[in-house]
Amino acid sequence: MIHKLTLQDHATQPHTVRGAGQDVGRSCILVSIGGKNIMLDCGMHMGYNDDRRFPDFSYITQNGRLTEFLDCVIISHFHLDHCGALPFMSEMVGYDGPIYMTHPTKAICPILLEDFRKITVDKKGETNFFTSQMIKDCMKKVVPLNLHQTVQVDDELEIKAYYAGHVLGAAMVHIKVGSESVVYTGDYNMTPDRHLGAAWIDKCRPDLLISESTYATTIRDSKRCRERDFLKKVHESIERGGKVLIPVFALGRAQELCILLETFWERMNLKAPIYFSTGLTEKANHYYKLFITWTNQKIRKTFVQRNMFEFKHIKAFDRSYADNPGPMVVFATPGMLHAGQSLQIFKKWAGNEKNMVIMPGYCVQGTIGHKILNGQRKLEMEGRSTLDVKLQVEYMSFSAHADAKGIMQLIRMAEPRNMLLVHGEAVKMEFLKGKIEQEFSIDCHMPANGETVAVTTNPSVPVDISLNLLKREMALGGPLPDPKKPRTMHGTLIMKENSLKLVSSEQALKELGLNEHQLRFTCRVQLQDPHSDSDTLHRIYTHLKSVLKGYTIQHLPDGTVMVESIVIKVSSCAEDANTKVLLLSWSYQDEDLGSFLSTLLKKGLPSGLC
Amino acid sequence: MKLYCLSGHPTLPCNVLKFKSTTIMLDCGLDTTSVLNFLPLPLVHSPRLSKLPSWVSKDGTINLEKELKECAGRVFVDSQPEFCLPERELLDLSTVDVILVSNYHCMMALPYITEHTGFTGTVYATEPTLQIGRLLMEELVTFMERVPKAQSATCWKNKEIQRMLPGPLKDAVDVWTWKRSYSMQEVNSALSKVQLVGYSQKVELFGAVQVSPLSSGYSLGSSNWIIQSHHEKVSYVSGSSLLTTHPQPMDQSSLKNSDVLILTGLTQMPTANPDGMLGEFCSNLAMTIRAGGNVLVPCYSSGVIYDLLECLYQFIDNANLGTTPFYFISPVANSSLEFSQIFAEWLCHNKQSKVYLPEPPFPHAELIQTNKLKHYSSIHGDFSSEFRQPCVVFTGHPSLRFGDVVHFMELWGKSSLNTIIFTEPDFSYLDALAPYQPLAMKCVYCPIDTRLNFHQVSKLLKEVQPLHVVCPEQYTQPPQSQAHRSDLMLELHPPPMPYRRCSVLNLPFRRRYERVYILPELANSLVPSEIKPGVSLATVSAVLHSKDNKHTLQRLHAIPNVPKKRKRVPEEPPVLLGPKPLLSGAVPLEAFLATLQKHGITEVKVEETADGHILHLQAEDTLIQLEEDGTHIVCDNNEPLRTTLRDLVLRFLQRL
């Protein structure tokens, strides 16, 4: 299931839309832009245990190998719903081209992949899954991206990463081919939190902005309130002697919550132990220390004096602690209660109503996390047993996604010409779509999985203009452009091989080695005017002056009148001194005016001219 | 396009480039060699320094006993040390739009420029350059402010007096413009104007020019800059290195196809091989320690020190120095060591991959963890109680005029067991040592300068092939001390354009084209015609819009004729839509006659002339003069005929 987006030049046909069915399970988007094919993220669905967990690449591979089809793959961040299928795609389906991701993502992604592989293969005994070696081989194809660096994938395709908040190393990408461009946000967060900054992008005016919309309808209350709520709930539970389980992913939200609890414990002088499961903690915190430049400003500023990721109150968890009496707080992985330690602890504590589980993030359909959040109190476990859920279930949205307000804010920042929502639920997206179309009057699409959306772009054509021509035109318009008086320019466009050059017509002749052919017209007009030749000429001059406003008209001392470059001479007829013969002469370039003048003068001069 | 050269120091440049209506300052180097003329600033009272005799001229006419002191035959100014600033009179610095910084050594004059010239622009630098640059400035300010000097000597600067002084004071230039150090407040204000950029990031300046930093391989975050429009490209090469040390390797290929390449910051030690120097550094260090002496390494707080520590990390166990304490003393020692570990993106590949493990990229983390390396903010405090000898001390400032190093010079200078090892190339070691003479301690000079040498740079230039090279005049002749070494200069064809302080160069640049965008509607309306195989032409008449230095061409819409209430003339004159296209080609006689015939014009008398033919259309009393490069239609009183003839002629011609 792949979203395929096609950007077409000058396309006139309406956007093609097929199929339906949005969900938050995994991200994998295919963009075709200016003849380039780019895969954006390569995620896996955590709610499935079968083939459906990986994207269906047969859509592409029916026409050949992935490597031939794709120009590059870009991974926005290390969450498995964005990178979980990467080794499957590169090693099992087969892709040898470049994979771009930021340094922190490159560092952390293989660890999470290995972690997940272990749970799936070693614990559940599944086969037909990628191996450790495949993860390593896959990571060898990764090219690290730095923020704001413009990476030239090939001569035409360039990509640029922007800070996205969300998790350590999360990035949004700007993809550009010629004058067409797309921005893909991945998951992002528009408000800084305790350890990360807010997403930012410049006014890059992409043809299309592809945004996640996990929290499409939520306008979340202030962060402070949510934090206070969270701390209050934890505190109450501890006070009455309960145990608190917080299922998290080892990296990301976990660090933010640790910082939060650490400072709270310090302030309130609490003694109940806080544990962090899995050996990953130490290592995870180390990544945060080494990639401190990716955290928020406050942490970066003070890291020399006090490293926020060295925790005093939080200790490593051991499986046996779960049965210890008395209150405790345990952070355990994974975050959706679908496997591993968090699930084990949950099973142990679920029967006691004094205990509490706090789900700090979104849970995909099919996971136990999702079920208990939906109020399910009896769970079917493997081996036909059922589990009664008596403990308190709390949902605290800490997962750092942009809410509706944030999404609108990003649109305001980037000013896209079209909008596309992915990674959200259909009903919520529909609501947001309406809001976007109303506020920004841009087209907003929400493709279903496997659906193709074509977005029409209308790029302007870049041309090299000769500086002489440009300066001439700019000088005509004066130093300050006058909106009422458009500056017209005339030139010749030379199209040669791949170059487009706009030069003055004279220069075009010269450059192409062509001769100029002068086409001139001479026309005699007879006129009854009983005055001397010079008086007649002056009368003509006065007449034309009054008729032709805005033209250059000169009365020259050599007995001619010039209108622009048209020459008018007067002589008397040999037979009749009152009959004057006017001689008009003009070149083809002045044809319109010349034709007009000859017709005008044939009508004679108005009386009353002095 | 003009280049204003505000600094004469080839490795601490400050140039201003005027390019397409933008004014761009390239680096902002502070020439600190001026401080060598001053007495050292001791941290604790130094009886030796305070007892130095005042200098009196031989004839006794000049007696500035408060200002000038003599030590071992040299005269020093007894005042707060002062720096030689970039030239400020050559152009109005408030007109500078942006400052591009290439590395943290080349930004030390920034507060003088941004705070006191009316500068309102933006400074661009990479994150490591900003952070480490801030540390170096903070260190400089701390060094100066913690030992304030009551007096500020100015009398010696009087031209009449300076003329009478012995060298090198006598020859010091622009001494009136020398300035004392800035304050921390000025540093903060200056650095608040910095906007961070990443390598290969394209930054648009006013829509006219695009600038982009490239990795230069010299230090953390160091960059060269590309300044380009669609048709012109200037490369600015500042301190760059091709050696494999800690920073990301130099990006050479992006410098290709430059119209002008401004070359600064070559090695100051063209004859010293950095690897050899590193070896000598280690062996001298080991020798001194084994003999029970102390080693003093005057250094900057960032840069080569990371490589020295890494080298020692590998060396100390083999050399049995595992128990020798290494001290790094600087107000910013801790910050510098910490910051070095967090810039993985800016490091060489080897160090980058360490971060993925995750391990700190520099091994000095381990030296600190195992207590082999200790860092202190100054000699006061913990250091004085924890300090053990023999030891190795890394401390600044390399000029030996201020900072904690002054204390160690006074402390260890009298014993021949101790050694001072110079590794920084910025100061002549003999000049640096002058106010400490006579000295008993050993002096070893191992300058490590990883910047490009002449051999590397000529190879690089051959590779990237700029049309013109601009460089400091020092690079166009061999160094004075080695006048016969013609390999220690740039030999290029065409020869490089040399500059010196206060030069204004007209760069040999002819701009011919500019980028303009044809809007889709106009593009669709164009009718190209093939004039030669592969070459097509189209006449363009359009409205030119120029906004933010971006030009677009829009389709010309005929202005609708607004009916006027009172018509003075029956016909409106044609709206000036601009001239008709130029014509090209020739009208062949026979074919033209045939065409005329087809249109019912049969009575044509053809007369041959020198340049062609005259056709007399007898029935119509009209003449057509046909020539190779022109056609003249003389037709009276018959407008329909004239237009018919016109159109027939046009059939044979190409329009452009």
Automatic annotation (TrEMBL), chain A:
Q: Name one GO cellular component term.
A: nucleus
Q: Which Pfam family, just one, is annotated for this protein?
A: IntS11_C
All copies of the Beta-Casp domain together span 254-372
* Superkingdom field: Eukaryota
GO MF annotation: an example: metal ion binding
By sequence similarity, the record places it as follows:
Belongs to the metallo-beta-lactamase superfamily. RNA-metabolizing metallo-beta-lactamase-like family. INTS11 subfamily.
This chain belongs to the protein called: Integrator complex subunit 11
| Annotated source species | Gasterosteus aculeatus aculeatus (three-spined stickleback)
UniProtKB/TrEMBL annotation, chain B:
Main location (coarse class): cytoplasm
> Which GO BP annotation is one of this protein's?
negative regulation of transmembrane receptor protein serine/threonine kinase signaling pathway
Mind naming one GO cellular-component term on file for this protein?
integrator complex
Q: Which domain of life is it from?
A: Eukaryota
Q: Which family does it belong to?
A: Belongs to the metallo-beta-lactamase superfamily. RNA-metabolizing metallo-beta-lactamase-like family. INTS9 subfamily.
- Cite the entry's keywords alphabetically: Cytoplasm, Nucleus
Entries under SUPFAM superfamilies matching the protein: Metallo-hydrolase/oxidoreductase
* Record-given protein name: Integrator complex subunit 9
Gene source species? Gasterosteus aculeatus aculeatus
Question: Which InterPro entries does this entry report, sorted A to Z?
Answer: Beta_Casp, Integrator_9su, IntS9-like_C, Metallo-B-lactamas, RibonucZ/Hydroxyglut_hydro
Under the heading Gene3D superfamilies, the entry gives: 3.40.50.10890, Ribonuclease Z/Hydroxyacylglutathione hydrolase-like
Q: Where is the Beta-Casp domain?
A: 305-433
**Where is this protein localized, as stated in its record?**
Cytoplasm; Nucleus
